[in-house]
């Protein structure tokens, strides 16, 4: 799952669950049935799980573009410059 | 870190939070139901009225209970527990409550009823103060919701009295 896919999965999860909760509550309240509310919500949770938990292909539409190895070689890593302070060393020896 | 387990965990957490919210709202929605239960109790007969060998008065009576508790039921009500208590004052106790009959009403369809029963539990005084005693019959109810707080209320009916002599 790529970065865009992760964001999408997170948002889908929250939106779907909120919709399921609202629909469940409204239907349950109107039909005066607590059981209906619970069943609708449970259905919503199962659906959301199926949509957002597995790593579906549509979460991988924006794969990360890594630099080619040849491209990387043209821009070598900056060398770490080690500055040795002679003063410190001498003070340590004392 | 965005693995199968992470997503399942996040979903479960959010789902349970949302569930808690809708249950809380369901419980809150009960506040808007107007409750007007009614009850009428008659004493049909005093079957027995005597002093027990160890000195306490005991009464056996037949009650006619007609109640309409349908308005106590909302969509969030699991069941209603009702009981009828005889309440009276004696020199020893400022309030005596003796439960005479109780029932569990499991559904709205059973909430409107009329029954004639003799007392289910023995009506025994703590002492011998019952001759000619005026007492109240009180219908108490406890509403047990599916989610939320249990609450109780009662209807007090006064003007009942016991005979002046044992029989």
TrEMBL record, chain A:
<keyword id="KW-0812">Transmembrane</keyword>
<dbReference type="InterPro" id="IPR009542">
    <property type="entry name" value="Spc1/SPCS1"/>
</dbReference>
<feature type="transmembrane region" description="Helical">
    <location>
        <begin position="12"/>
        <end position="32"/>
    </location>
</feature>
<feature type="transmembrane region" description="Helical">
    <location>
        <begin position="39"/>
        <end position="59"/>
    </location>
</feature>
<dbReference type="GO" id="GO:0045047">
    <property type="term" value="P:protein targeting to ER"/>
</dbReference>
<keyword id="KW-0256">Endoplasmic reticulum</keyword>
<dbReference type="GO" id="GO:0005787">
    <property type="term" value="C:signal peptidase complex"/>
</dbReference>
<comment type="function">
    <text>Component of the signal peptidase complex (SPC) which catalyzes the cleavage of N-terminal signal sequences from nascent proteins as they are translocated into the lumen of the endoplasmic reticulum. Dispensable for SPC enzymatic activity.</text>
</comment>
<keyword id="KW-0472">Membrane</keyword>
<protein>
    <recommendedName>
        <fullName>Signal peptidase complex subunit 1</fullName>
    </recommendedName>
</protein>
<keyword id="KW-1133">Transmembrane helix</keyword>
<comment type="similarity">
    <text>Belongs to the SPCS1 family.</text>
</comment>
<dbReference type="GO" id="GO:0006465">
    <property type="term" value="P:signal peptide processing"/>
</dbReference>
<dbReference type="Pfam" id="PF06645">
    <property type="entry name" value="SPC12"/>
</dbReference>
From TrEMBL, chain B:
<protein>
    <recommendedName>
        <fullName>Signal peptidase complex subunit 3</fullName>
    </recommendedName>
</protein>
<keyword id="KW-0812">Transmembrane</keyword>
<dbReference type="GO" id="GO:0005787">
    <property type="term" value="C:signal peptidase complex"/>
</dbReference>
<keyword id="KW-1133">Transmembrane helix</keyword>
<dbReference type="InterPro" id="IPR007653">
    <property type="entry name" value="SPC3"/>
</dbReference>
<dbReference type="Pfam" id="PF04573">
    <property type="entry name" value="SPC22"/>
</dbReference>
<keyword id="KW-0256">Endoplasmic reticulum</keyword>
<dbReference type="GO" id="GO:0006465">
    <property type="term" value="P:signal peptide processing"/>
</dbReference>
<keyword id="KW-0472">Membrane</keyword>
<comment type="similarity">
    <text>Belongs to the SPCS3 family.</text>
</comment>
<keyword id="KW-0735">Signal-anchor</keyword>
<comment type="function">
    <text>Essential component of the signal peptidase complex (SPC) which catalyzes the cleavage of N-terminal signal sequences from nascent proteins as they are translocated into the lumen of the endoplasmic reticulum. Essential for the SPC catalytic activity, possibly by stabilizing and positioning the active center of the complex close to the lumenal surface.</text>
</comment>
<dbReference type="GO" id="GO:0045047">
    <property type="term" value="P:protein targeting to ER"/>
</dbReference>
